Amino acid sequence: MTARRLLFRNLNAKIAALPMIATVLVVFIGCTVWTVVYSFTSSRSLPMLNFVGFDQYTRLFGASRWDVSIKNLAIYGILSLIFSLVVGFILAVFMDQKIRFENAFRTIFLYPFALSHIVTGLVWQWILNPFGIEKVVRDLGFESFSFALLSNRSMAIYAIVIAGLWQGTGLVMALMLAGLRNIDEEIWKAARVDGIPTWKTYVFVIIPMMRPVFITTLVLIATGIVKLYDLVVAMTNGGPGISTEVPAKYVYDFMFGWANLGQGLAASTVMLATVLIILIPWAMLEFGGRKAK
């Protein structure tokens, strides 16, 4: 009787949750398993269960294009994490000083985030090409000035970093500002009474108290880094050559451009495994530590 009661307890809520449960099982878990299984096949245009073992992975890790894409993702990821967090926090501190026209400044900083990555990429492609900043400066009389980031193989990835920071830093600022506004004013008063310098208050008191905000921001930034694709396509399409290739573009090109489904799925599986290797230990430390307490 007890089991029967538990089964029919909150029955309406359980029925309402069925579509979401089915979506998780079929779309997320099902598609993930499908991706992993077919990454071990020699599928070309269409999926076929002709298993070839680790051949696709051997080819993947032996491809210079994949090595370049991983290197570019690391450069973009590290710089994006560092600069977006630092600049976003500094902007939030500036906005938290009850400045005039705060709403206007907040809108200006946050506006780029409302644009799509394609629009952002096209705008920055125009700014950084020879008819953008370089032409403006040369028209001012500096004829020898050169600022051709997008045509420089070693610098093109940094142009993409600049565009990404311009678009995403406003969101980081908004999240940090919300966190700062939740800090009790009494903490600031106590710090002033004790004679603690402002920078020490931020570093040793405010930032540790904003840990949940930093974690949320970090997850959002990391998500944008892993799925980096459309910004690259809009600005450089992976060029010059393959100098700005990224993993998501590698996957798309092999799956839809070059009809090599097995290779694209192998790259997808490696990306998934990398994310899980980082995510699972972090989740265990974050949530397991709380439960232990």
TrEMBL record:
GO terms for cellular component: plasma membrane. One of its GO terms (biological process) is transmembrane transport. The keyword Endoplasmic reticulum does not apply. It is a multi-pass membrane protein. The chain crosses the membrane at residues 21-41, 73-95, 107-127, 155-180, 201-226, 265-285. Residues 70-282 form the ABC transmembrane type-1 domain. Keywords: Cell membrane, Membrane, Transmembrane, Transmembrane helix, Transport. It is found in: Cell membrane. Its main location: membrane. Belongs to the binding-protein-dependent transport system permease family. PANTHER family: ABC TRANSPORTER PERMEASE PROTEIN. This is Carbohydrate ABC transporter membrane protein 1 (CUT1 family).
